[in-house]
UniProtKB/TrEMBL annotation:
Residues 92-231 form the SusD-like N-terminal domain. Keywords: Cell outer membrane, Membrane, Signal. InterPro entries: SusD-like_N (IPR033985), SusD_RagB_dom (IPR012944), TPR-like_helical_dom_sf (IPR011990). Gene3D superfamilies: 1.25.40.390. Pfam families: SusD-like_3, SusD_RagB. This is RagB/SusD family nutrient uptake outer membrane protein. Residues 288-546 form the RagB/SusD domain. It is found in: Cell outer membrane.
């Protein structure tokens, strides 16, 4: 797959700009024109690889290399801000409107997420149209396979759109004519299309994850996402069935023993999941990963400094403290765009104010120092009076200078040859089996079956060494806490809270900065103003609360 990426990116730019059919009288002559590319299996492999590249660009920041979508700092953090897990303090200007609930229809990421999703949709639609026309395939299953990939990615893009904007235009083919009269398709109808796409993908994508290349989709990724989309529809029994299809497939299992690149060094099985090169099934034996985005270092089709700044966002600015120097073992250079809230991470082992226990059991390995780093030791050998001593986390270092605080280590990444680098080249587990169990628990709660929900959650807690719970403790709030313990930073927290209809309640409970400001309408972002302005031939209403 990766050998096609560079060609595919150029190809996607072309097809994304493919507008009015009559704009030019002459046919496209470039070798990357769809009519020249989509003439056989190899051409569709090129187009398919482009879909994976576009999907990864969801995490793009500044416009280096393929990072042409967002061209700003940390768009992913906009989906963590204004929730119940992080404070955003004196951060990048592109994030503050989201954190403060002052975002407008002209805010940068409001527009770029919209553009990213429709880039992906238009590229998927192009493949679907030409796959229907093509008759030259290497294998009789090729057509359905490429259509399944395209429909998965189209569903994935619409997932983002309905979470962020609600009703959005649904487009399922190439739009040759320039249009100024789009209308907003009701969210419920878009969800029906998403489900149909994922059902097709689940039927036609490969079944055996041991027989696909790293990062390539299987039917189980479609079932995982299908479970989530059924939850968003309120179809809880169907969500249960989709999650169980993955769990009972025999293809995946929670990792319960040390594995991978550093299994013989200090750590635990949970920290092993996030060690570089441990994400892919083929290379590390990780049988928990269902779908992994490929960002490898120094690899054709891999990452650039602008691909994924998650590490920088979560990592403290320890390098600003006298006695510290940048180190790959400390995660590289951090920016602390977001900092964890006390209520869930706790203040134990720090000198921060309050005596906050946090939400972890004492035996929960997800709270070990291998996974949440609370012990920071001065590492600058040129500061002899400090070297080797423990640095103190205080209220000031946590929330003012953002230089030291309990840090989530799953995003640590650094390279000795470039300690000040911006991005992360570590592959990213997009779906893993632990979340499938948590989706299953959510489905059971939706069916008013807390006992079965507790049973699903206990599979996760047992692996973590946490105490098991019973039906009496199994509430939606407990499940949302469990998703923090297991998935903090991996999930788009905004999506989870919107889906469970708990965004406003949880923000009012835990986010002191905006608890008096958040309203029901904040569950959606505004429609980008440029979209409304351009759609002059039909009414295109703005979301409530954001004006017109």
């Amino acid at each position: 797959m990766k050998t096609f990426i560079k060609i595919s990116l150029a190809f996607i730019i072309l097809i994304s700009l493919n507008g009015c059919k009559d704009f030019l009288e002459e046919d496209l002559k470039t070798e990357l024109a769809p009519t020249n590319t989509f003439t056989g299996t190899y051409g569709f492999e090129v187009g398919s690889a482009g879909l994976y590249a576009l999907t990864r660009s969801e995490y793009n920041t500044y416009g280096e290399g393929g990072a042409y979508i967002h061209n700003g700092a940390c768009p992913y953090e906009a989906l963590q801000a204004a929730t119940d897990i992080v404070d955003v303090i004196n951060s990048d200007a592109s994030l503050m409107p989201f954190a403060n609930l002052t975002l407008t229809p002209s805010q940068q990421f409001v527009t770029t997420y919209w553009n990213w999703a429709y880039h992906l949709i238009s590229s998927a639609n192009e493949i679907l149209v030409y796959a229907d026309q093509n008759t030259n395939w290497d294998a009789p299953t090729d057509k359905a396979r490429f259509q399944a990939e395209a429909r998965f990615f189209r569903a994935y893009a619409y997932r983002t759109l309905v979470y962020l904007y609600g009703d959005v235009p649904y487009v399922e083919t190439i739009l040759y004519d320039f249009q100024l009269n789009f209308t907003r398709t009701p969210k419920a109808e878009v969800l029906e299309h998403i489900v149909a796409d994922l059902q097709f993908a689940a039927e036609h994508l490969p079944e055996n994850p041991d027989q696909v290349k790293d990062g390539k989709l299987t039917k189980w990724a479609a079932y995982h996402l299908l479970s989530e989309m059924y939850l968003l529809q309120g179809e809880y029994q169907l969500a249960e069935q989709a999650a169980l299809a993955v769990i009972n497939s025999g293809r995946y299992e929670l990792m319960k023993n040390r594995f991978g690149a550093k299994q013989n060094t200090a750590g635990d099985v949970f920290s092993d999941l996030f060690i570089e090169n441990n994400q892919n099934r083929q290379s590390s034996g990780n049988r928990e990963s269902i779908w992994v985005l490929q960002f490898e270092f120094n690899t054709v089709g891999g990452g650039t400094n602008s691909d994924d700044w998650t590490r920088r966002a979560w990592n403290p600015k320890y390098q600003d403290v006298l006695g510290f120097v940048l180190a790959d073992t400390l995660g590289g250079r951090g920016l602390a765009q977001i900092v964890p809230m006390k209520w869930w991470v706790g203040t134990q082992g720090t000198n921060a104010t309050g005596n906050v226990a946090g939400i972890f059991d004492a035996t929960d390995i997800r709270n070990s120092n291998y996974n949440i780093k609370r012990n920071w030791y001065y590492n600058n050998v040129n500061e002899a009076s400090l070297y080797g001593k423990k640095a103190t986390i205080t209220e000031q270092t946590w929330f003012t200078t953002k230089s030291l605080f309990p840090a989530v280590t799953k995003f640590f990444y650094g390279r000795a040859e470039n300690l000040s680098l911006t991005g992360s080249y570590k592959d990213r587990m997009k779906f893993r089996l632990a979340e499938t169990y948590l989706l299953l628990a959510e489905a059971y709660l939706g069916q008013n079956n807390p006992a079965k929900a507790a049973e699903a959650v206990n599979v996760i807690r047992a692996r973590a060494g946490a105490s098991l719970i019973d039906a009496g403790a199994m509430t939606m709030d407990f499940l949302l806490d469990e998703r923090i313990r297991e998935l903090v930073g991996e999930e788009s927290r905004r999506f989870t809270l919107v889906r469970t209809k708990k965004l406003v309640d949880r923000v009012r409970m835990y986010n002191n900065a905006i608890k008096g400001k958040i309203q029901d309408y904040h569950a959606l972002w505004p429609i980008p103003q440029v979209i409304i302005d351009a759609n002059r031939d039909a009414e295109f209403p703005q979301n409530p609360g954001y004006g017109q």
